Amino acid sequence: LSIGFRTVEPLEYYRRFLKENCRPDGRELGEFRATTHFSLSSGSITTADGSALVKLGNTTVICGVKAELAAPTADSANKGYIVPNVEFPSLCSTRFRSGPPGEEAQAASQFIADVIENSQMIAKEDLCIANGKLAWVLYCDIICLDYDGNILDASAFALLAALKSVQLPSVTINEETGSSEVNLKQKNPLIIRKHPVATSFAVFDDTLLIVDPTAEEEDLATGTVTVVTDDEDRLCSVHKPGGSPLTGAKLQDCITRAITRQKEIKKLIDKVIKSIKPK
Question: What GO MF annotations does this protein's record show (predicted)?
Answer without folding.
Answer: mRNA 3'-UTR AU-rich region binding
